[in-house]
Description:
It is a single chain. The chain is an alpha/beta fold. Helices cover about 50% and strands about 15% of the residues. It is built from eight helices and five strands. It has helices at about 20-30, 45-55, 70-95, 105-115, 120-130, 145-155, 170-180, 200-210, and strands spanning about 5-10, 35-40, 100-105, 140-145, 190. The chain has a five-stranded parallel sheet with strand order 2-3-1-4-5, with helices on both faces. It starts with 6 loop residues before the first strand and ends with a helix. About 30% of the residues are buried.
Amino acid sequence: MYKKKSFFIVFEGVEGCGKSFQSKKLFNKLKKNKIQTILTREPGGTRSAELIRNLILKDYFNKDNKEKFDKYTDTLLYLAARNEHIKNKILPALQNKKIVICDRFTDSTLAYQVHGKKININFVNHIHKFILDGVKPDITFLLKASSKSSKQRLKNRKSKNRYDNFAQSFYRKAQKSFLQIAKNKKNYYVLDSSKNDDSLERKIFEIVKKHLKIK
Length: 215
């Protein structure tokens, strides 16, 4: 018997791992079971955070123009979007005992900005201390895809942002960082999403059902 409670589920992984697809599948299954659920994403999720998303993810760098954001400016924009997202969407939903499914969260900042761009981790942790407001995932699904499958998915994407156009070596490095973050942590589920099929969808739902005590 499902007892209404707040629960925060995060999907993480590199571009083309299928996290957006699987988070939508889980959202639809929970809605079908009449469980109050919201599906959101980072960067973004609220009107103001989506404006910041457009600024940082849009391919605004002209190939002939060397001007681009400093890596700390870039990181601050992600953190600003997260602050808006938490205060105006995630926290109110959790306070109303809803299930929140989020496509990316703090681990993406650690994998891409800290490990990838060498942003000082203390800088990120210090800001997180003020903006997270006690919000942390109850469970995180880390989807791990083969280079071949993620590359094919990125190739098939109609709409792309600058993170979809990086070299495969960048994604391999990022995936390694995600795996490092998840290592030996009980509330992390590392799942192979190379096929991204119905069996993965079922596996994710079974894990969530167990945590939510849904029969």
